[in-house]
Design a protein that fits this description.
about 220 residues, alpha+beta, DNA polymerase, domain 1, 2 domains, five-stranded mixed beta sheet, 5 strands, elongated, 2Fe-2S-bd, 2Fe-2S-bd_dom_sf
Protein backbone atom coordinates (compact mmCIF):
# COMPACT_ATOMS: atom_id res chain seq x y z
CA UNK A 1 0.00 0.00 0.00
CA UNK A 2 2.81 2.38 0.78
CA UNK A 3 4.41 1.73 -2.62
CA UNK A 4 1.12 2.46 -4.39
CA UNK A 5 0.59 5.79 -2.64
CA UNK A 6 4.17 6.88 -3.22
CA UNK A 7 3.69 7.17 -6.98
CA UNK A 8 1.26 10.08 -6.52
CA UNK A 9 2.61 13.57 -5.82
CA UNK A 10 1.92 14.87 -2.35
CA UNK A 11 -0.45 17.80 -2.02
CA UNK A 12 -0.86 19.89 1.07
CA UNK A 13 -4.51 20.35 1.94
CA UNK A 14 -5.11 23.66 3.69
CA UNK A 15 -8.15 25.63 4.74
CA UNK A 16 -7.52 27.97 1.77
CA UNK A 17 -7.52 25.19 -0.86
CA UNK A 18 -10.72 23.70 0.57
CA UNK A 19 -12.50 27.07 0.42
CA UNK A 20 -11.29 27.83 -3.14
CA UNK A 21 -12.30 24.41 -4.46
CA UNK A 22 -15.70 24.55 -2.79
CA UNK A 23 -16.41 28.07 -4.07
CA UNK A 24 -15.56 27.12 -7.68
CA UNK A 25 -17.78 24.03 -7.52
CA UNK A 26 -20.65 26.09 -6.07
CA UNK A 27 -20.42 28.72 -8.82
CA UNK A 28 -20.37 26.12 -11.60
CA UNK A 29 -23.31 24.21 -10.15
CA UNK A 30 -25.38 27.40 -9.93
CA UNK A 31 -25.17 28.07 -13.69
CA UNK A 32 -28.27 27.16 -15.72
CA UNK A 33 -28.03 23.96 -17.74
CA UNK A 34 -26.36 24.65 -21.11
CA UNK A 35 -25.25 28.17 -20.17
CA UNK A 36 -21.61 27.54 -21.05
CA UNK A 37 -22.55 25.92 -24.36
CA UNK A 38 -24.89 28.80 -25.21
CA UNK A 39 -22.17 31.33 -24.52
CA UNK A 40 -19.81 29.45 -26.87
CA UNK A 41 -22.45 29.35 -29.62
CA UNK A 42 -23.10 33.09 -29.31
CA UNK A 43 -19.39 33.75 -29.79
CA UNK A 44 -19.55 32.19 -33.27
CA UNK A 45 -19.93 34.73 -36.10
CA UNK A 46 -23.37 35.06 -37.69
CA UNK A 47 -23.89 34.11 -41.32
CA UNK A 48 -23.91 36.93 -43.86
CA UNK A 49 -25.98 37.21 -47.05
CA UNK A 50 -24.09 38.29 -50.16
CA UNK A 51 -24.52 38.42 -53.93
CA UNK A 52 -21.90 37.15 -56.34
CA UNK A 53 -22.19 37.41 -60.11
CA UNK A 54 -20.28 34.31 -61.20
CA UNK A 55 -19.78 33.63 -64.89
CA UNK A 56 -22.62 36.00 -65.71
CA UNK A 57 -25.13 34.47 -63.28
CA UNK A 58 -26.23 36.21 -60.08
CA UNK A 59 -26.09 34.03 -56.97
CA UNK A 60 -27.53 34.86 -53.54
CA UNK A 61 -25.53 33.12 -50.81
CA UNK A 62 -25.69 33.02 -47.04
CA UNK A 63 -22.23 32.20 -45.74
CA UNK A 64 -20.11 32.07 -42.65
CA UNK A 65 -18.07 35.30 -43.00
CA UNK A 66 -14.92 33.19 -42.70
CA UNK A 67 -15.70 31.30 -45.94
CA UNK A 68 -13.04 31.84 -48.57
CA UNK A 69 -14.03 32.70 -52.11
CA UNK A 70 -12.57 29.37 -53.23
CA UNK A 71 -14.76 27.40 -50.82
CA UNK A 72 -17.81 29.44 -51.80
CA UNK A 73 -17.24 28.55 -55.45
CA UNK A 74 -16.48 24.89 -54.84
CA UNK A 75 -18.70 23.97 -51.91
CA UNK A 76 -21.69 26.29 -52.38
CA UNK A 77 -21.87 26.76 -56.17
CA UNK A 78 -20.38 23.40 -57.26
CA UNK A 79 -17.86 25.16 -59.52
CA UNK A 80 -15.00 22.74 -58.91
CA UNK A 81 -12.82 23.84 -61.82
CA UNK A 82 -10.91 26.12 -59.45
CA UNK A 83 -8.67 23.77 -57.50
CA UNK A 84 -7.54 23.81 -53.88
CA UNK A 85 -3.83 23.04 -54.07
CA UNK A 86 -1.75 24.50 -51.27
CA UNK A 87 -4.57 26.61 -49.73
CA UNK A 88 -1.86 29.17 -48.87
CA UNK A 89 -1.69 31.25 -52.07
CA UNK A 90 1.55 29.66 -53.21
CA UNK A 91 0.57 27.41 -56.13
CA UNK A 92 -1.99 29.42 -58.12
CA UNK A 93 -4.31 26.45 -58.78
CA UNK A 94 -7.23 28.47 -57.37
CA UNK A 95 -6.73 31.53 -59.62
CA UNK A 96 -9.95 33.21 -60.77
CA UNK A 97 -10.76 36.61 -62.29
CA UNK A 98 -12.53 39.19 -60.10
CA UNK A 99 -13.66 42.23 -62.08
CA UNK A 100 -11.15 41.10 -64.71
CA UNK A 101 -8.20 40.94 -62.30
CA UNK A 102 -6.60 37.61 -61.39
CA UNK A 103 -6.49 36.68 -57.71
CA UNK A 104 -5.82 33.63 -55.55
CA UNK A 105 -9.32 32.74 -54.40
CA UNK A 106 -8.01 30.76 -51.42
CA UNK A 107 -6.58 33.93 -49.86
CA UNK A 108 -9.68 36.11 -49.98
CA UNK A 109 -13.04 35.93 -48.22
CA UNK A 110 -16.22 35.61 -50.25
CA UNK A 111 -17.90 38.45 -48.31
CA UNK A 112 -15.19 40.83 -49.53
CA UNK A 113 -16.51 40.45 -53.08
CA UNK A 114 -20.19 41.10 -52.45
CA UNK A 115 -21.71 42.47 -55.66
CA UNK A 116 -18.62 41.85 -57.76
CA UNK A 117 -18.26 39.93 -61.02
CA UNK A 118 -16.22 36.72 -60.91
CA UNK A 119 -15.08 34.55 -63.79
CA UNK A 120 -13.89 30.98 -63.24
CA UNK A 121 -12.52 28.49 -65.75
CA UNK A 122 -16.13 27.35 -66.36
CA UNK A 123 -17.07 30.82 -67.60
CA UNK A 124 -14.25 31.52 -70.06
CA UNK A 125 -15.64 29.72 -73.09
CA UNK A 126 -18.05 31.42 -75.51
CA UNK A 127 -20.85 28.90 -75.59
CA UNK A 128 -19.44 25.85 -77.37
CA UNK A 129 -16.34 27.76 -78.51
CA UNK A 130 -13.28 27.64 -76.30
CA UNK A 131 -11.58 30.81 -75.16
CA UNK A 132 -8.39 31.39 -77.23
CA UNK A 133 -6.30 30.64 -74.14
CA UNK A 134 -8.12 27.34 -73.58
CA UNK A 135 -7.75 26.36 -77.23
CA UNK A 136 -4.05 27.20 -77.17
CA UNK A 137 -3.46 25.05 -74.09
CA UNK A 138 -5.13 22.13 -75.85
CA UNK A 139 -3.16 22.66 -79.05
CA UNK A 140 0.22 22.98 -77.30
CA UNK A 141 -0.47 20.31 -74.67
CA UNK A 142 0.01 22.88 -71.91
CA UNK A 143 -1.05 20.40 -69.25
CA UNK A 144 -0.27 16.91 -68.04
CA UNK A 145 -2.12 15.89 -64.88
CA UNK A 146 -4.38 18.93 -65.39
CA UNK A 147 -4.69 19.90 -61.73
CA UNK A 148 -3.08 23.32 -62.17
CA UNK A 149 -4.49 23.95 -65.64
CA UNK A 150 -7.60 25.94 -64.69
CA UNK A 151 -5.50 28.29 -62.59
CA UNK A 152 -2.84 28.55 -65.31
CA UNK A 153 -5.43 29.47 -67.94
CA UNK A 154 -7.23 32.04 -65.77
CA UNK A 155 -3.87 33.52 -64.77
CA UNK A 156 -2.79 33.68 -68.41
CA UNK A 157 -5.95 35.57 -69.35
CA UNK A 158 -5.50 37.97 -66.44
CA UNK A 159 -1.82 38.42 -67.16
CA UNK A 160 -2.42 39.50 -70.77
CA UNK A 161 -5.07 41.96 -69.57
CA UNK A 162 -2.57 43.44 -67.11
CA UNK A 163 0.02 43.80 -69.85
CA UNK A 164 -2.48 45.54 -72.16
CA UNK A 165 -3.28 47.97 -69.34
CA UNK A 166 0.39 48.91 -69.06
CA UNK A 167 1.21 47.13 -65.81
CA UNK A 168 4.94 46.28 -65.71
CA UNK A 169 6.58 43.15 -64.37
CA UNK A 170 9.96 42.84 -62.70
CA UNK A 171 11.64 42.10 -66.05
CA UNK A 172 9.62 44.42 -68.32
CA UNK A 173 12.09 46.36 -70.46
CA UNK A 174 9.71 48.50 -72.50
CA UNK A 175 5.97 48.88 -71.94
CA UNK A 176 5.57 50.47 -75.36
CA UNK A 177 6.58 47.17 -76.93
CA UNK A 178 3.61 45.48 -78.68
CA UNK A 179 1.87 42.77 -76.70
CA UNK A 180 2.64 40.18 -79.38
CA UNK A 181 6.36 40.77 -78.89
CA UNK A 182 6.44 40.02 -75.17
CA UNK A 183 9.46 37.83 -74.46
CA UNK A 184 9.42 34.32 -73.04
CA UNK A 185 11.24 35.61 -69.95
CA UNK A 186 8.54 38.17 -69.29
CA UNK A 187 5.80 35.56 -69.72
CA UNK A 188 7.58 33.30 -67.25
CA UNK A 189 8.00 36.15 -64.77
CA UNK A 190 4.37 37.20 -65.01
CA UNK A 191 3.21 33.57 -64.62
CA UNK A 192 5.62 32.74 -61.80
CA UNK A 193 2.81 32.58 -59.25
CA UNK A 194 1.38 29.50 -60.95
CA UNK A 195 3.20 26.25 -60.28
CA UNK A 196 3.03 23.19 -62.55
CA UNK A 197 4.38 20.20 -60.68
CA UNK A 198 4.41 18.23 -63.94
CA UNK A 199 6.82 20.90 -65.30
CA UNK A 200 4.92 21.60 -68.55
CA UNK A 201 6.28 25.15 -68.53
CA UNK A 202 7.64 25.26 -72.14
CA UNK A 203 4.23 24.20 -73.46
CA UNK A 204 2.46 26.69 -71.21
CA UNK A 205 4.65 29.52 -72.52
CA UNK A 206 3.99 28.41 -76.11
CA UNK A 207 0.24 28.33 -75.47
CA UNK A 208 0.25 31.82 -73.96
CA UNK A 209 2.27 33.17 -76.88
CA UNK A 210 -0.29 31.78 -79.33
CA UNK A 211 -3.22 33.24 -77.37
CA UNK A 212 -1.30 36.50 -77.06
CA UNK A 213 -0.98 36.77 -80.83
CA UNK A 214 -4.68 36.07 -81.32
CA UNK A 215 -5.76 38.74 -78.83
CA UNK A 216 -3.68 41.63 -80.20
Amino acid sequence: MENTLSIFPTMEVTRRTVIETGTTALLLSSLPRGALAAETEQAEPSDISIELRVNGHLHHLTLDPRTTLLDALREHLALTGSKKGCDHGQCGACTVLVEGRRINSCLTLAVMHDGQSITTIEGLAFGQDLHPMQAAFVEHDGFQCGYCTSGQICSGVGMLAERRQGMPSYVTADLTQPLAEMSDNEIRERMSGNICRCAAYPNIVAAIKQAMGEQT
